[in-house]
Specification:
The complex is a heterodimer of chains A (292) and B (588).
Chain A: E1 8-17, E2 20-30, E3 33-38, H1 45-52, E4 60-65, H2 73-81, E5 83-86, H3 98-108, H4 114-127, H5 143-154, E6 161-165, H6 173-185, E7 191-195, H7 199-205, E8 208-213, E9 216-221, H8 223-228, E10 234-237, E11 244-249, E12 255-259, E13 266-267, H9 272-280
Parallel strand pairs in A: 3-7, 3-8, 5-6, 6-7
Antiparallel strand pairs in A: 1-2, 1-4, 8-9, 10-12, 10-13, 11-12
Helix pairs in contact in A: 3-4, 3-5, 4-5
Chain B: H1 2-28, H2 42-54, H3 57-76, H4 87-110, H5 112-116, H6 119-123, H7 129-139, H8 143-162, H9 170-177, H10 180-196, H11 202-215, H12 244-264, H13 270-289, H14 296-307, E1 314-318, E2 321-325, H15 333-345, E3 357-359, H16 371-376, H17 379-382, H18 401-412, E4 427-428, H19 433-443, H20 447-463, E5 469-471, H21 478-483, H22 491-502, E6 520-523, H23 524-535, H24 538-547, H25 549-552, H26 559-566
Parallel strand pairs in B: 2-3, 4-6
Antiparallel strand pairs in B: 1-2, 5-6
Helix pairs in contact in B: 2-7, 3-4, 4-8, 4-9, 4-10, 4-11, 7-10, 10-12, 12-13, 15-18, 18-19, 19-23, 19-26, 20-23, 23-26
Classes of the chains: A alpha/beta (292), B mainly alpha (588).
Chain lengths: 292, 588
């Protein structure tokens, strides 16, 4: 584990649904900056983020956010005042306009002054490029635009903690670039935790990456450190190598193998994606189709 | 008692179902959030929720439906004749319909987060869930602006189409002022159900429960009106021992209970416990108060007001006539006065009755008085023929001069005035000139009485009542006459007369146990004779009355003699024979 001054401190966090353990004694400290959370489906990412967003309680363990204990009502409310949250599956009030919906969330976030609140709503809609569409009903917005509405509401009040659960799902490449732009514009004192399957987003945005698998942390370090774990385990060949965990044909017709490289293999520069695949133990799946 | 049990049962079923549903729901889906949070955003949320409530399809459809029905009734049913043209229709039908529509719309807005899946997002905000419930409850007041606007539009439409100015009488204004209750109440029920039973069918079940409680169990109880916002006059009216406001407070307490129960969904709070106990205490107290048996003192008070109205009224002397009226309607003396004065002006000075007194009696159906009051009341005292004039229509009528004109005329010719609540036929003076004279004096008093008497005579002809007893009165439906200012007698009015007339048997008895049978009747042919004389040259008739007063008021003088003196000729049809002094029904 890396040592960070903790905006968020987790110690021994567990969570189970019925008999199935989802989080198994997590320890973590998070400070300011963008932290990426990687992990396969079912790894417990969303559950962890829900606990951090105070919408779900851990079964056991200690959690501190801004030095506050979310088990106490007053502390939990204070955390929520300083939080921006995009759930994995965001619901919308379809009969609201984009402006009305974000304004509604702004009221719930205690922006009581009407004029100032409306200014703030326009500001965050402008950040996500929706200011011109603010009076359109949400049900008439595309999936990507709805996702941007969700991001906009999370930015209300410039929160000190941003918890983003797959915020770029459904965004086209241009919108993802816009998202990177806006997230990089968030103040350096903000603590952002970003769950995503887009490893390119991790590389582009995160100073730190945490890999969660089976309810436990498998890795905690910088993206470069994560990539480095795969050095010597990625190689190129003419044909798929039987010892590769995963292999795919690249654009130049050669096969990129990830796994335990045979002696004399033509090693390639590993990516964070390669390292992730090795870390979570993806098994041999011919032409798995994972894009480079 | 049954209604109390039914009410508690309905509330218990909702709460128990809500708890059971909540447990089942938690077992099958992840629930987010908790009850921690602030309430500082409540009012700002209430503004948003008000907007959403007013835009909700269920509310808009209800308003459109009420509008369509109202307009259809006003336009298709003939304007002023239509009940929809009146504020009471709107208060008793339109507004409750709107309230039931709000049950649905408030339920839908309250369950919006759950239905649209925004509960996780909302749970991560610092605002407490109970703040949102409070905002929903506050938003239930918002539709009142639309209801108020609707009242204005409804009245405006009636005014534009039929040039009718609404009459702001007490009977109209009380229910209108109480219109807030079913509207706010419907919304609060919707919020309550939304918090405990967030199911699509819940509001419909709630509407059924409301209708059942209000119209099923003990809905005919003479004093317990459950959710009705306004107190109708037909439940003892002003002689009920309850204050009108008590029932309204009772309904308010039920609405308050709904609001408290909605907030209980978010757990106990000290202030909520206090508020719940308070509204339950008010509800129970008022429930008892509006159904308790009257005390001996209250019975005595009501009986006293019925049997001795003059002692409880405000009296004024005008032109040697004493007028005793209910407080607040002293200005009616200006309406009664000219009618009485004009009748007496036709009577020779020496023959004018001394000490004539007019004492207002309020309309009351004795059968709708509380049983204890019925038992203690002496109808022969309450509706006695005491020589006074008694306007026998309720406060609120705009044409009070009619009854007093005929009553003054009857007294002037030596006959008992028809002063009971019902049409009386206490004694017979058929075929006597004094009966005709009474009609003539009254008919010529004012333009209103003249027009009304013409309608009365036409009714006698149409109904073929020339040889049947007809009271010295006009038994007029004032509202109907107002709608037909040209004096035409329409069929509806004749129909309305029929059952009333049948309530008095030919021998003058009345089926109403507490209505003293007083007043005098002549024959229908006397009415027709009076019409002929009233239409003759006024100066000639005046001269005959002045010269032959004593002869005309003599019970032995027949109608034919009056016709002979005035000379216009007999009316169409024969004149019924004179009631002789030997007849046991004959007037003294």
């Amino acid at each position: 584990m890396s040592e960070h001054t903790g905006t968020i401190n987790l110690h021994g966090i567990t969570k189970a649904f019925r008999a199935r353990s989802v989080l198994d004694g997590l320890d973590l400290r998070l400070g300011s900056g963008v932290t990426g959370l990687l992990g396969p489906n079912g790894a417990g990412k969303t559950t962890l983020l829900r606990i951090l967003a105070t919408v779900l309680r851990a079964d056991s363990g200690d959690l501190e956010v801004f030095g506050l204990d979310p088990r106490r009502d007053a502390d939990r409310v204070e955390i929520r005042r300083r939080l921006g949250y995009v759930p994995q599956e965001v619901g919308f009030h379809d009969d609201f306009t984009a402006f009305e919906f974000v304004d509604y969330l702004a009221i719930l976030k205690e922006h009581s002054d009407r004029d100032a609140r409306h200014d703030e709503v326009r500001r965050v809609l402008d950040i996500v490029g929706l200011v011109d569409a603010r009076h359109r009903k949400i049900r008439k917005l595309s999936g990507g635009m709805r996702r941007r509405v969700a991001i906009a509401q999370a930015l209300l009040g410039s929160p000190e903690l941003l918890v983003l659960d797959e915020p770029t799902a459904g965004l086209d490449p241009e919108q993802r670039l816009r998202f990177r732009e806006l997230l990089s514009a968030v103040g350096p004192s903000t603590t952002t935790i970003l769950s995503t399957h887009q490893t390119t987003d991790i590389v582009a945005l995160c100073q730190r990456v945490v890999v969660l698998h089976g309810g436990m942390f498998m890795f905690d370090g910088s993206p470069a450190e994560l990539s480095a774990t795969a050095v010597g385990r990625v190689w190129l060949s003419v044909e798929r190598h039987p010892g590769a965990h995963v292999a795919w044909t690249t654009g130049d017709g050669r096969v990129r193998n990830v796994g335990d490289a045979p002696p004399g293999a033509e090693l390639a520069e590993p990516t964070i994606e390669d390292a992730y695949l090795l870390l979570v133990g993806v098994h041999h799946q011919p032409d798995a189709g994972i894009a480079a | 008692m049954r209604i109390t049990v039914a009410f508690c049962l309905v509330v218990a079923v909702i709460l128990a179902s809500g708890i059971a549903y909540d447990r089942w729901d938690r077992s099958r889906r992840l629930r987010f959030g908790d009850e921690a949070g602030s309430t500082s955003s409540t009012w700002a949320l209430a503004r948003v929720e008000s907007r959403e409530l007013l835009h909700h399809p269920a509310w808009l459809i209800t308003v459109a439906l009420v509008t369509a029905v109202t307009v259809a009734l006003i336009v298709l049913e003939g304007g002023a004749e239509s009940e929809a043209a009146s504020l009471p229709w709107f208060a008793f039908v339109g507004i409750p319909m709107a309230g039931l529509g709000l049950v649905v719309s408030a339920h839908r807005t309250t369950t919006r987060a759950r239905r649209h899946g925004t509960d996780e997002l909302i749970a991560a905000t610092p605002t407490a869930a109970r703040a949102r419930t409070m905002a929903h409850l506050i938003s239930c007041v918002a539709p009142l602006t639309i209801v108020a606007l609707y009242v204005v539009l409804d009245l405006g439409l009636v005014y534009v189409l039929y040039e009718l100015t609404p009459r702001p009488t007490a009977e109209v204004l009380v229910p209108v002022l109480a219109f807030v209750l079913p509207v706010v109440g419907g919304g609060v029920v919707g919020v309550f159900l939304g918090r405990w039973l967030p199911l699509a069918m819940a509001p419909l079940a709630g509407i059924v429960a409301i209708l059942w409680l209000n119209n099923g169990v003990e809905h005919l109880h003479p004093r317990f009106r459950m959710l009705r916002a306004a107190v109708e006059e037909d439940y003892g009216g002003p002689f009920d021992i309850d204050h009108v406001g008590w029932h309204l407070i009772f309904v308010v307490s039920i609405i308050g209970l709904g609001a408290c129960l909605a907030l209980w969904r978010h757990g106990a709070r000290q202030w909520l416990t206090v508020a719940t106990v308070a509204v339950v205490a008010v509800m129970v107290s008022l429930g008892w108060l509006i159904t308790r048996p009257p005390s001996a003192a209250e019975v005595a008070d009501v009986v006293d007001r019925l049997e001795h109205p003059a002692e409880n009224l405000s009296c004024t002397v005008r032109s040697a006539v004493t007028y005793c009226v209910q407080p607040g309607v002293e200005h009616w003396i200006d309406r009664w006065g000219p009618a009485v004065d004009e009748v007496l002006a036709q009577v020779p000075l020496v023959a004018r009755p001394d000490g004539l007194r007019l004492v207002q009696r309020l309309v009351v159906n004795p059968r709708e008085l509380l049983p204890e009051i019925q038992a203690a009341l002496d109808g022969s005292v309450a509706w006695a023929n005491d020589g006074d004039l008694h306007p026998n229509y309720s406060i609120g009528e705009e044409d009070p001069d009619l009854a007093v004109a005929w009553q003054a005329a009857a007294v002037a010719v030596g006959l008992p005035p028809a002063t009971s609540w019902e049409r009386p036929a206490g004694c017979m003076a058929g075929g006597q000139a004094r009966t005709v004279l009474a009609h003539v004096l009254a008919a010529r008093a004012t333009t209103t009485t003249s027009r009304t008497f013409a309608e009365h005579a036409e009714w006698v002809t149409i109904e073929g009542r020339e040889r049947e007893p007809v009271p010295i009165d006009v038994e007029l439906d004032y509202d109907t006459r107002e709608a037909a200012p040209t004096g035409e007698v329409n069929e509806k009015r004749s129909d309305e007369w029929e059952p009333t007339t049948h309530n008095v048997a030919a021998d003058g008895s009345s089926p109403r146990p507490h209505v003293a049978v007083v007043g005098a009747s002549g024959w229908g042919s006397d009415v027709l004779a009076a019409e002929v004389i009233a239409s003759a040259d006024r100066s000639t008739v005046d001269a005959v009355i002045a010269a032959h007063w004593d002869e005309l008021v003599d019970p032995a003088t027949p109608t034919s003699r009056f016709l002979e003196l005035t000379g216009p000729g007999p009316p169409s049809g024969s004149i019924a024979p004179i009631t002789s002094g030997d007849d046991p029904r004959a007037c003294p």
